Amino acid sequence: MRHTSSRRAFLSRSLGTLATAALAQETAAPEPVVDIHQHTHYRQRKDEHLLAHQRAMGVTTTILLPAGTPMTRPSTHEGKSNGLAAECWGNESCMQLAQAHPGAYLWGANEVTDLDTAPTEIEKWLKLGACIIAEQKFDVQCDSAHSQKLYELAAAYQVPILLHFQNETYNRGYERFHTMLAKHPKTTFIGHAQTFWGNIDKLHEPKNLYPKGKITPGGLTDRYLADYPNMFADMSAGSGLNALTRDEAHTTAFFQRHQDKILYGSDCTDHFGRGPGCQGAQTIAMIRKLAPGKTVERKILFENARKLFKIA
């Protein structure tokens, strides 16, 4: 009788312990993820769909990158590239959404690069709390005098500046960008888009925006990340996912080499945050799959952005 009672007590305690452990696992806070690259009204996506998308991906902090003022001039391709060529909204929209969700959302400041008023306009938003100058996506030379004024502004306010590099379209002259990295050592630069990611390959053909196949290490981007402490990489968009998936063995080695320089971003227009239509979720999955260990994975998905943007 005593034996049966003791056995029942033991089983009760064991089941209670298992139930407590299961509950703790279910309620444990998810590992934090920072998405450094999102937009408001991206391809007419409503704010509530953006919020749901980020939650579904498991993102805990999102940085919203505004477009510049819509206008007709060569640097906006006579207006065709207004809204970052994706119908994205500007500074006010990003600030308002971030302020409505403190802690979960941060925001950037932006303006058309070659406007004489661009530094003053961007500085206004930096003073209000913007944490980055981005997304600089205009048809200018990457070493233009107007561009350099913004690089100097980023250094003065100790915020990064993110540039969209696309051959013969945005921030031209990537092969000369090392001169800017050397000339502006106090400016933190974040590279993004087709030309940036194509140039992880030493044999990259500039006109091929989404190259496939094996990668030969030592391309311009590989060298910039290795040689300049102020150069960082934004893993976002189809160009970033393409770079991840085209040569998985190279990706693991690339992550190992540049583990302190790579930042997760989604730049994803999807509404749901999951499934084959969500490039942002696919990129998170590939980072987790190909990172050479948990420490590197956490750096890319959280720690590097936490340090760069001083996230608590």
Description:
The chain is an alpha/beta fold. It has one domain (about 35-310): Alpha-Beta Barrel (TIM Barrel). About 45% of the residues lie in helices and about 10% in strands. It has twelve helices and eight strands. It has helices at about 1-25, 45-55, 90-100, 120-125, 145-155, 175-185, 195-200, 220-225, 235-245, 250-255, 280-290, 295-310, and strands at about 35-40, 60-65, 105, 135, 160-165, 190, 230-235, 260-265. The strands form two sheets. The protein has a five-stranded parallel sheet. Helix 5 (about 145-155) links the parallel strand 4 (about 135) and strand 5 (about 160-165). The termini are far apart. About 45% of the residues are buried.
Features:
single chain, disordered N terminus, alpha/beta, 312 residues, 8 strands, TIM Barrel, 12 helices, 5-stranded parallel beta sheet, globular, 3-stranded parallel beta sheet, 44% helix
Assign an overall shape. globular
List low-confidence stretches: 1-5, 7-12, 14-27
Multimeric state of these chains? single chain
Largest sheet: 5 strands, parallel
Radius of gyration: 22 Å
First-to-last CA distance:
58 Å
Q: How many strand segments?
A: 8
Protein name: Amidohydrolase-related domain-containing protein
Pfam family, one: Amidohydro_2
InterPro entries: Amidohydro-rel, Metal_Hydrolase, TAT_signal
Keywords: Signal
